[in-house]
Amino acid sequence: MDTRGFLYLLILSFLISHSVAEIKSLKITADTRAMIMFEKFGFTHTGHVSVILSDVLVTSSVTQPDPSRLGFFLLSEESLLQVLLEIQQTPTMCVLDSKYINLLFDFTMLSPPPHSFLNKSYPVTSPNEYSLYFANCVAESQVTMNVQTEVYNLDDGVKDYLSAGQTQLPTLFFLFSLAYFGFLGLWIYICYNNKRSVHRIHALMAGLLLMKALNLICAAEDKHYVKITGTPHGWDVLFYIFQFIRVVLLFTVIVLIGTGWSFLKPFLQEREKKVLMIVIPLQVLANLASIVIGETGPFIKDWVTWNQLFLLVDIVCCCAIIFPIVWSIRSLRETSKTDGKAARNLAKLTLFRQFYIVVIGYLYFTRIVVFALRTIAAYKYQWVSNAAEEIASLAFYSVMFYMFRPVERNEYFVLDDEEEEAAELALREEEFEL
Of the candidates 165, 288, 148, 279, which has an alpha carbon nearest to the alpha carbon of residue 223? Predict the structure, then answer.
């Protein structure tokens, strides 16, 4: 077995930022991979792994398959590096012979062909975060089989199908959904009390809050049913629907606010329309990749490719939504030199510059800091990264909605002559250069 397969698995272990703990059934057909990673799960001292195999067929073009050279095992992230070193030192070694793995079974335990079958459950005696792997050390061979995996912890004798670091997620998501429903009620109240200053963008912002709240309540129900039954009972479908609408609305609202649409100008310029025409289709693609990543797993051959596609599209969209804000700031700077309304332009420039900083901070935190938390946090505290992401999102929504709330007298009112002169001096400085 070469080291490329293990390097591939090392990449997988970092891409799987949180454990997926549903009961999974899948069919593997004529698969030639030496290693297949099924899932990653945080076990307590009451953890169990159940594997059911049926219709197992192993064929090789060069040798009679040795059933002891195929099997399932558990491997922690720490031990993965040790096994990688072993493989580098002894390239012909089979991973099933490594002293660093927790071997569950090999294919010698299968019932005789033609209907090879196995149904086994194994307790996990050492609490840790483990990945479930299948290894095939038979040269030039293909494996066909039906696999059902079930990983869980026992909580007072009741099966908990969520990883040790995610069992708090249903409550966490539910509490944040309540916060957003309250936020929506407050936003509707503010808009009602400032009817004359309400623009179309404020209606879109209300829709964004509604979709965020519904997305979180569906996430809470999804995790709740996975926790108690191992399957989401259809809540995953609703979750992906509201997630798609919410993400598209979020990027659209940021772009439209960045352009000043509806509250500064009633139309979009051609280049601003192009940004929306790029961002929205890319978000459709990103959500498709998100569904494939979430509903399948590392056992499909193109799983890493889908992850790379999602990351690439997300980076492109994050960069694209910054351009309208920069264009608005530059446009206001140019306008301030000719229209004689220095104070109003200074207020607008300050507002858009603050919005630019807020958006950059939000994107940086949710894409980099949250990923770092998921990577370095102990498996029992994986929920902390989800909490940090939701807190950052709520803070971002609160700041953005406060900055662009509908008010009768806002940052655009006219000031007296002294303040106008002070504003002109401020505009001559370079503090608004990005």
Answer: 165
Residues of the chain with pLDDT under 70: 1-21, 262-267, 335-346, 408-434
Residue 297: both structure tokens together:
């797993």
Give the pLDDT confidence score for residue 184 in this predicted structure. 98
DSSP string, 220-258: HHHHHHHHHHSS-TTHHHHHHHHHHHHHHHHHHHHHHHH
Which tens digits make up the pLDDT trace of 299-337? 777 777 887 888 888 888 888 888 888 888 787 777 665
Question: What tokens were used for 183?
Answer: 């936020």
DSSP letters spanning 163-212:
-TTTTTHHHHHHHHHHHHHHHHHHHHHHHHHTGGG--HHHHHHHHHHHHH
**CB neighbours of 189 closer than 8 A, spacing ≥ 6?**
none
pLDDT, tens digit (0-9, with 9 covering 90-100), for 371-409: 889 888 889 999 999 999 999 999 999 999 999 998 765
Tokens of 235: 């809540």
C-alpha of 226 from chain center: 18
C-alpha gyration radius of the chain: 27
Do the strands 24-31 and 117-124 form a parallel or antiparallel pair, or are they unpaired?
A: unpaired
Which of 134, 132, 37, 54 lies closest to 94, judged by CA?
134
Amino acid, single-letter form, for residue 350: T
The strand pairing partners of 182, in sequence order, are: none
Does residue 227 contact residue 162 with C-beta atoms inside 8 Å? yes
In single-letter form, the type of residue at position 156 comes to D
**Where does residue 368 rank: exposed (0-12), middle (13-18), buried (19+ CB within 10 A)?**
exposed
Q: How many angstroms separate the CA atoms of 69 and 106, rounded?
A: 7
pLDDT for 129: 92
**351: Cβ–Cβ under 8 A, 6 or more apart, which residues?**
403, 411
Determine the length of the chain: 434
Distance between CA atoms of 32 and 15, rounded to whole angstroms? 22
> What is d(CA 158, CA 358) in angstroms, rounded to the nearest whole number?
44
